[in-house]
Amino acid sequence: MQASFPKAATDQGARHVDGSGSGSPGARHVAIIMDGNGRWAKKRLLPRIAGHRAGVEAVRRVARAARELGLECLTLYAFSSENWKRPASEVADLMGLLRHFIQADLDEFHANGVRLRVIGDYRALDPALVGMIDGAIARTAENSGPVIAIALNYGAQDEMVRAAQRLARRVADGELDPAAIDPAAIEGALDTADLPPLDLLIRTSGEQRLSNFMLWQAAYAELYFTDILWPDFDADALARALASFNRRDRRFGGL
Ligand code: FPP
Fold first, then answer.
1. What share of the chain is helix, strand, coil (3-state, %, to 5)?
2. Which residues contact 103 (CB under 8 A, 6 or more apart)?
3. Active-site residue identified among 18, 83, 93, 232
4. What atom in ligand 1 is closest to the CA of residue 53?
5. Domain covering 25-154+198-246 in this structure, CATH number
6. Higher confidence at residue 251 or residue 37?
């Protein structure tokens, strides 16, 4: 069974994760573009894989912090549908790290009630890795704790194309009236259908672009850019991002 969340961004008085109790509700869903592994390694005269390894350590720290701070969902951009353009050796390194991460960390996630999810076209990956991912998702599906969603072979435009194809198939099968396709129908066909609305999108390493990440979901998300390179990102950095979020005045197009 998939988890379901109230959809409207304002429909739940979630507590402020920094402990303050006033103003708009605290963040429920935070997504991170984890950028800067390569530059972190270069600064230390290390190979890029060392930066990605340190990036995995940051993933562990931040996943733990997200749970402790009471977030409902943390989505992490681990491999984009465009990352295939990198040298084959780096792609293989990233896939190896991912495999090892699932093997090494699944028990801890499960013990802490975390539900593991994946967004993106991950079924196009190596079949052994797909099996491992499906096993991890199934094992943690009934947990009641926060969701850690890993974006794998993910691109927002690709996600929207796949959503359009799903809806088109339902139209062709006579199940769906084209006139009934509204934002909720599209949202329901995205990979994030059963995740809470995105509140805060963080990008590390000083770059200020979305790089094809959660373009639909970011429509009303708050954006937060930090110069910290991903391997240096930690619980304090996450808390600072959330404190910034809590100071924002979100109007969702209203006054
Ligand atoms: C961007 O840094 C980072 C990535 C493309 C991959 C992110 C992957 C990890 C943090 C490790 C694997 C993740 C999991 C969940 C196990 P970059 O290489 O583009 O850095 P640069 O821009 O400084 O070169």
1. 45, 15, 40
2. 132
3. 83
4. 11
5. 3.40.1180.10
6. 37
